[in-house]
Amino acid sequence: MDIRHLRYFVGVCEAGSLSRAADRLHVAQPSLGQQISALETELDTQLFERSRRGMVLTNEGRVFLDHARVVLADVDRAREAVRNANAVPMGAVCLGLPTTVGLMATIPILAVCRSELPNVHLKLIEAYSGTLQEWLQAGRIDIAILYGDAVEVGLKKRALLDDQLAFIAGNGTDVPATFTLEQLENFPLILPGVEHGLRRMVESACAPLHIKLNVVAEIDSLGTVKRAAELGLGCTVLPPMAVAAEVAAGKLKAVPIEGPQMRRRVVLAINETRPGSLAKSRVIEIVERVIADMVAGGAWPAEQLGVMAQQIVHP
User: Fold this and answer.
1) What mean pLDDT do residues 264-292 have?
2) Whole-model pTM?
3) I need a surface site. Which of 67, 143, 155, 270 has the fewest CB within 10 A?
4) Can you tell me the mean pLDDT for 17-35?
5) Helix axes 3-15, 29-43, angle to 10 degrees
6) Which of 86-100, 175-189, 211-225 is the least confident region?
7) What is the DSSP letter of 214?
8) Domain chopping of the chain, boundaries
9) How far lies 189's CA from each of 192, 226, 259, 272, in Å?
């Protein structure tokens, strides 16, 4: 098996047929078909179901596609790293952010990267923290902002800050000046689904205290949750920075929920088994600097940390 086999395989997957893939790859169709058959023989498995309508991946083919894309991406990164070892940072870097973090941090990070790293193609992805961790471990993204500093196999983490979650309500809701976890029982709540990390955190904190939450709706969209709270359809729990604009505009109220159970650690993570690059190292530095400046300037109400969960060694 060589890199050419992998590129041909991915090309057929993306084109959906041998004829279209042959045109895109500038390879004769019979030769391309022979290369795919040789790859299947080497792997001792069928990667495609063939029909008049094209080529459809088998279950084994879908598994192999994920690995093939990671290998090809690594080859491209290696080529870029060698070319740019003593030059300006360039190439592609993929950064994953949880939605609540992305809401505040994506634009500032992008602005600084565009200014300082004009030759770096930055790809920004928003998803659940747990999903981002899986993608980071699989090599699908290069850097991730995650919640929680627990030790994970293959990951290195730097603790950035502690976020105190807050009770969020519409401006017309009567909210006490200080808020305890027990008081959540008194309000109708709109929370994300049970697979969401924030929902699990809230329920885990309430369970030992036998607090019964009145969840009137489950919504995973951050924007929709905030809009529903503005309209008085229910209250929610979010980090204060996720509603900073709405609070400033007088649309929402945010009161920190007292107690260590509602404190969430934000970390920067990389996969220590993946290759590094000058571009990746510089993006990491910018992410850390931008978030530190946001906390210091009050744009992100949180406690900045200098303690390392695990030291990140920049390549």
Assistant:
1) 91
2) 0.66
3) 67
4) 88
5) 110
6) 86-100
7) E
8) 3-82, 87-163+264-304, 166-256
9) 10, 12, 19, 40
